[in-house]
Amino acid sequence: MKKVALAFDLGGTELRAALVDSEGSLLSFSAVPTHAAGGPAAVIQQIELLATATLAEKPDLVPTGIGIGAPGPLDPEVGIVIAPPTLAGWYEVPLADILSSRFQLPVRLENDANAAALGEWRYGAGRGARSMVFVTVSTGIGGGVIVDGRTLHGRRGLAAEIGHMTITSEGERCFCGAIGCFEAVASGTALGRRATARTRQSDGSMLRNLSADAEVTGRHVVDAARNGDALAMELLSAEARWLGIGFTNLLHLYSPDILVMGGGISHGFYLLHDAIVATVRERAMPAYRDVPIVPAQLGRHAGLIGAASLILGDDAQIGSATSRSESPGHSGVDIPTSKSEAGDD
After folding, report:
1. What mean pLDDT is predicted for residues 10-24?
2. pTM of the complete model
3. Local structure of 28: helix, strand or coil
């Protein structure tokens, strides 16, 4: 029988689930808006219902375990979600043990950024590399680091919080309270904020047209630059320099074989690439200048695929977490015989 894992990507906005095989292919997929304000009990109930719907699409396949990527901070060694700012009421929640008890399957928990990094390393742009840095540039900046074939976790799984390294003494205050965080100056949110400040409502600019005269987002800037808008291209040039400064720090810190960029702003990767590389060559020591900087390949499914690989991969034990279930052959949920029986709610 084909070996598969049930994977979850728990975000503050969306909860996604998939049945994934050992080649990293999604065999079924379901998603719902996360009831983030409802507390752990509400979200865990959503996980159970989504599992039922996802498994119903492939009733002949039984997962050997569950991998879940969740927002940090969390401790992957003991499977505890510590206190994620995007999920209300989550404080020291033993998520892996809870799900293992509910499903009667082994469960492995990982930081969502690390899960995405693992997906790209095993099945995407970093495949074949021994060491890799993955950076996701979206609403915030996160990422994960693979060092000598192992996910870097550090104390309580808190290593590689790359969005909060200080890269300037200026700029907006980050949500963490500090000034000059990588995330505060180079995230998609920061890019959108700069674009909004450079435009006005009803000014006829492409950026305001794309945003329907609301606040401009980083994705609007990317889309406008693709269409040759001069202001958007100027904004992306500044964005690329900030990214280049941050990436230089990461190259010096981790000396990876490859640096992979994902997230929403990576849709403009080829508009950013040359300026990023120019900044790296200007600032990095010579030995670090030839590290390839490439776009991610797995898109929004990187986290799901990486979470599944915690169960399916040869390195499933790499620092990832743990339930101690001894019943890998049976899921605690009832698997419907057809998708319609799973319901749409």
Report:
1. 92
2. 0.83
3. strand
